[in-house]
Amino acid sequence: MTLYLKDATFLDWQTLEIRRTDLAVEEDPQKGISYPAAVPSPDALGPEDRVLDCSGKIVTKSFGCGHHHIYSTLARGMPAPRKTPANFTEVLQYIWWHIDKRLTLEMIEASALASAIYCAKNGVTFVIDHHASPFAIEGSLATVAGAFDRIGISHMLCYEISDRDGEGPREEGLAETDKFLAAGHQGHVGLHASFTVGDELLRKSVDLARKHDTGLHVHVAEDKADQDDSLSKYGRRVVERFYDAGALELQKSILAHCIHLSDHERDLLGNSGAWVVQNVESNQNNNVGVAGYGSLTDNIMLGTDGMHCDMLRSAKAAFLVGQATEGIGFDGIYDRFRNIHRYIREFGGRGDGDNNLVILNYDSPTELTPDNFLGHFVYGIDARHVETVIARGRIIVEDGQVTQVDESEVLKFARDMGRKLWHKL
Ligand SMILES: [Zn+2]
Fold it and tell me: Distance, CA 346 to ligand 1 centroid (Å)?
């Protein structure tokens, strides 16, 4: 099957070069995209070939999310917690850990399906997720993977292992991770955070990551409390502790947040090649602080931390917060927005080839050129311009509608599961 994008304004996501061209998109990632001399006439098309008229539309590479939590999907609009959290630790205790302990595999499926639909409609075709459901661990990663696959979203998944619920869930988390990675899925060894991970678990997790040639995916110094805990229990700061455990030698490791770091930790991290994900909206929401990342490392991606599924929104938020913290420019924020593609390539990951594209119906009042594109990226282009999305050479969103499932049925399923979950809170 070949998709022909006729008369597209094609924006090369790396060079920002713009050209008016026809494009041929293949499902085979090796073939990816090409520039045919002409779109074949209707009688010369194969039975499954399609031609999409892209005149006046911008076509460019689709987007990716570096840190997501599908498990939070059913929290939207839920009843208030029994106690109003007074700090970050209480936010976890009274909100997130209260929810994730009550998730069933059915609720996880509904969460992942709904989240994948929102990702697709926002032009996000690749998600790195961090999943928690301490009393529905076995099969949870395969459930999330199956839901993402149904919508057409590529993924790197992990289970958020910790010691917070005792030895049972901890060992189940390790086993689920081992089984999932051994089955050939791409993903990480997920850990919650230093303050919920003892030394034995940390050691086992690094060993498991080595076994599967992957990295850890863990929250790091999101709140100052994580550092206080590490200093009091281990006499070292969080990044120092992970460094000593060998976690930073794993080049595929992802450290989310990294807000409260000392100069020594910044050096260790910056010299390691490990990756950092910035999630400013979540940080504002939890009032845990802000950080400038400019001098830390070039290996920075953007995430949503589960707050939503719109990476253009994340980029704009990070740009605005970045004015005060590090004076970030248009090019700096665009690089972070696009760094996920570099991460996936360096990881050797599948599902992010050139045949992942968005078609934007961008109604700008001003001219768009290679020289001013980044201004349009920061101030103009947003999710409502995403009209059609192509993932692995297949259309997964067309004219704003998902093509692989009946969205209203999925959302009804999600609302049913949401009611069940809220009833248990
Ligand atoms: Zn997170």
Answer: 22
The single residue listed with the structure tokens 């949503």 is 304
Given a cut of 90, whether residue 31 has pLDDT beyond it is no
Q: Find the largest Cα–Cα distance for the chain.
A: 73
Per-residue CA distances from 256 to 69, 280, 283 (Å): 12, 11, 11
**What tens digit of pLDDT does each residue of 132-144 get?**
999 999 999 999 9
Query: Of the candidates 200, 197, 234, 245, which has an alpha carbon nearest to the alpha carbon of residue 218?
Result: 197
Query: Sorting pLDDT into bands at 50, 70 and 90, what band is 12?
Result: very high
Ligand 1 center from residue 217 Cα (angstroms): 10
Q: What percent of the chain has pLDDT over 90?
A: 99
- Whole-number Å distance, alpha carbon 305 to ligand 1 midpoint, is 4
Task: Find the 130 Cα to ligand 1 centroid distance in Å.
Answer: 7
Token representation of residue 123: 């032009």
**Cα 222 to ligand 1 centroid, rounded to whole Å:** 9
The rounded mean pLDDT for the chain is 97
151-176 per-position pLDDT tens digit:
999 999 999 999 999 999 999 999 99
Residue linked to tokens 């934007």: 360
Distance 256 CA to ligand 1 centre (A): 7
**CA 166 to centroid of ligand 1, rounded, Å:** 21
Which distant-in-sequence residues (6+ apart) come within 8 Å of 195 by Cβ? 225, 226, 229, 230
- The answer to whether the pTM exceeds 0.85 is yes
Distance 154 CA to ligand 1 centre (A): 19
- Token pair listed for 136: 């529905």
Q: CA gyration radius for the chain?
A: 21
Separation of 12 CA from ligand 1 center, angstroms?
31
Task: Compute the distance from residue 408 Cα to the ligand 1 centre, in Å.
Answer: 28
pLDDT over threshold 90, residue 274: yes
Place of tokens 């030394």: 199
Distance CA 112, CA 95 (A): 19
